[in-house]
């Protein structure tokens, strides 16, 4: 049975006439029982809302807040170290670092062998301290439906799941090395890509 959508019978009929898929596929992901989807959904809610609030207050987004927060804990970290701490890619870190440097919320000092170490400026520390109560209140709201014991258990599960990052990256590298990536996609007649 097809899950209900907002499409009217007329729209569904036109879609079917065009050869589009109008029935639910036999093997699909149930969002409420697929951990990556649940984590992704929560992350999207947190990132989108956080970015709006942080931008409203100080003209920076969630990625810049993450770097400011990380530098509050790890003064002198390099951009590469921040990527590891935050689990972000180099391009996101570079863009956010450059924005923060331009706003003089962080400063960069050269170290040995070309290393560049990042520190909060006084203005950056003010932004950090302004955002801290907001970040903590957002976490409290997220925790409202949970007991203290459930929160502790959830955090311990998430920390344990983070340990799978290396295995996940290894698996993703295997997929990227697959010489025939189309073997994982739906094929039409005679092996032609499905439409």
Structural description of this entry:
The protein has 195 residues and is mainly alpha-helical. It has a single domain (25-163), classed as Winged helix-like DNA-binding domain superfamily/Winged helix DNA-binding domain (Arc Repressor Mutant, subunit A, Orthogonal Bundle), CATH 1.10.10. The protein contains eight helices and two strands; from the N terminus they run H-H-H-H-H-E-E-H-H-H. It has a two-stranded antiparallel sheet with strand order 1-2. A hairpin with a 5-residue loop joins strand 1 (106-110) and strand 2 (116-120). Helix 4 (79-86) crosses helix 5. The longest helix has 24 residues, at 35-58. The protein starts with 8 loop residues before the first helix and ends in an 18-residue tail after the last helix.
